[in-house]
Design brief:
Number of strands: 2
Number of helices: 5
Structural class: mainly alpha
Distance between the termini: 24 Å
Radius of gyration: 16 Å
Number of domains: 2
Shape: globular
Strand order of the largest sheet: 1-2
Helix content: 55-70%
Order of helices and strands: HHHEEHH
CATH class of the largest domain: Mainly Alpha
Largest sheet: 2 strands, antiparallel
CATH superfamily of the largest domain: Winged helix-like DNA-binding domain superfamily/Winged helix DNA-binding domain
CATH architecture of the largest domain: Orthogonal Bundle
Amino acid sequence: MILNVDLAREIPIYQQLRDQIVEAIAEGALTEGSTLPATRTLAADFGINFHTVNKAYDLLRQEGLIRLNRKTGAVVTQITVADPPFPAEWTARARTLLAEAVARGLPADEVLATCRAILESFDAKKPEDTP
């Protein structure tokens, strides 16, 4: 898994890290039991404060995507069906993002095609289940 941080973007660095890790999980690059780099190591690699990495990891922990342990560090947890409040929260975030696309004049069919292509890209990148 390769993480990239753009210090010039308006999106906070911790959010960029969090988002890229979520995408790596969706793509299958990170699976249950995968370890993430230590916060200080990742911070040093990017030349950022380790508290920034801590914040990204803590968000992922709160979302149930990783577990944090002093001995094992940050580890991807078993991916399970979403907890009850997640679908409503996700729908609200998706609604806002889709509203932005419509407000900026993107045609509905283009928005739907983009959504389908993104979902298909996650399926295509996941490793095949082999017996």
